[in-house]
């Protein structure tokens, strides 16, 4: 038994080493992991966009099809998009034929510009609300912001919005691969899509799930809807869940993030019922969320999260 266990562990180690491709010694030295034969993930850092990361801070997914490469969320700057193109060239000679943006936050679509520079005919897909936001005031806001906080190192010159829209239940066939789109209503934003790579037992969750990381929840977010969206994803029982920040894994990633959201919501509701304001309840809520304090982003996000949950509960009362 011990022998078998040792062999098993050794096999996993070899497998992991072989599947984690070495990267050339340039400044885009982020790990790439093979999830299945046709799915790879590139893991960016958790830091806010800055001159060092040049706007790259998310998990990028590559799907290899017989028609070419499909990219989910090609980074948070034109520079990152171009670096992802370079990295894909180390994996395959096939062109990028399609890009999917999980939602309208800039770290998930500003890389479109870099991809289109090399592959102008690649088709970009996003939710209708995402396309509208990027083509509206949000697009310019994100482009200006990324150029400002990276001190001009993001390489961004123009807004590249989706060419086509996709919505819940849509199926897109690219070569031998079918992608199924889900949108369960407002969750992390009002324009999230998650993408099933059909036949691969895998789902890209977008920012509806983060692996041990906390990010923003803005006016269009719904904590209640986010919890429901995670329940929907858990119900699908996929073997591989790939979040838009942090590493891929199993259902445990979803359960962990869900527990954060539920714990936060329940505590705010309890203290709201006790008559406390969001400001007054913050110390007690933070104490309840002690298990999450080591997650990157906690310190800057927990206050705004409490305020948003408070407003959400208040609006449910009327
Ligand atoms: Zn986001």
Report the portion of residues in β strands.
15-25%
From the alpha carbons, calculate the radius of gyration and give it in angstroms. 20 Å
Distance between the termini: 61 Å
Globally, the shape reads globular
List low-confidence stretches. 1-25
Q: Tell me the major beta sheet.
A: 7 strands, mixed
Number of strands: 12
* Class inferred from helices and paired strands: alpha/beta
Count helical runs. 9
Enumerate the strands of the largest sheet in spatial order, edge to edge or round the barrel: 1-2-3-4-5-6-7
Question: What hetero molecules are in the model?
Answer: zinc ion
Characterize the structure shown:
- The chain is of the alpha/beta class and 318 residues long.
- The protein has helices at 2-19, 78-89, 112-118, 128-135, 137-149, 223-235, 251-273, 278-288, 298-316; strands at 32-36, 39-43, 59-64, 69-72, 96-100, 123-126, 164-165, 171-174, 177-182, 194-197, 202-206, 240-243.
- The strands form 2 sheets. A 7-stranded mixed beta sheet has the order 1-2-3-4-5-6-7. The chain has a 5-stranded mixed beta sheet with strand order 8-9-10-11-12, covered by helices on one side.
- A hairpin with a 4-residue loop joins strand 10 and strand 11.
- The longest helix has 23 residues, at 251-273.
- The chain starts with a helix and ends with a helix.
- Mean pLDDT is 93; it is low at 1-25.
- It binds zinc ion.
């Amino acid at each position: 038994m011990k022998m078998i266990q040792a062999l098993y562990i050794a096999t996993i180690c070899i497998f992991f080493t072989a599947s984690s491709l070495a990267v050339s010694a340039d400044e885009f030295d982020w790990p790439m992991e093979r999830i299945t034969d046709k799915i790879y993930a590139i893991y960016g850092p958790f830091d806010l966009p800055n001159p060092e990361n040049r706007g790259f801070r998310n998990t990028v997914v590559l799907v290899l099809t017989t028609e070419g490469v499909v990219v989910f969320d090609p980074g948070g700057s034109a520079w990152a998009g171009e670096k992802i193109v370079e990295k894909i060239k180390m994996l395959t000679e096939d062109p990028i034929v399609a890009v999917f943006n999980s939602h309208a936050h800039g770290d998930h679509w500003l890389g479109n510009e870099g991809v289109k520079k090399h592959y102008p005919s690649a088709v970009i897909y996003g939710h209708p609300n995402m396309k509208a936001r990027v083509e509206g005031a949000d697009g310019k806001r994100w482009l200006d912001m990324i150029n400002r906080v990276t001190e001009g190192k993001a390489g961004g010159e123009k807004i590249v919005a989706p060419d086509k829209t996709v919505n819940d239940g849509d199926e897109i066939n690219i070569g031998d691969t079918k992608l199924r789109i889900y949108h369960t209503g407002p969750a992390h934003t009002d324009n999230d899509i998650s993408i099933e790579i059909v036949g691969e037992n895998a789902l890209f969750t977008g920012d509806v799930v983060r692996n041990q990381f906390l990010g923003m929840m803005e006016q269009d977010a719904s904590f209640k809807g986010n919890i429901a969206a995670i329940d929907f994803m858990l119900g699908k029982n996929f073997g591989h869940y790939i979040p838009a920040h942090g590493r891929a894994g199993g259902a445990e990633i979803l359960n962990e993030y869900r527990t954060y959201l539920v714990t936060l919501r329940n505590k705010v509701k309890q203290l709201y019922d006790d008559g406390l304001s969001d400001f007054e309840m913050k110390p007690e809520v933070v104490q309840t969320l002690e298990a999450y304090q080591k997650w990157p982003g906690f310190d800057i996000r927990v206050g705004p999260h409490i305020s948003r949950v408070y407003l959400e509960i208040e609006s449910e009362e009327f």
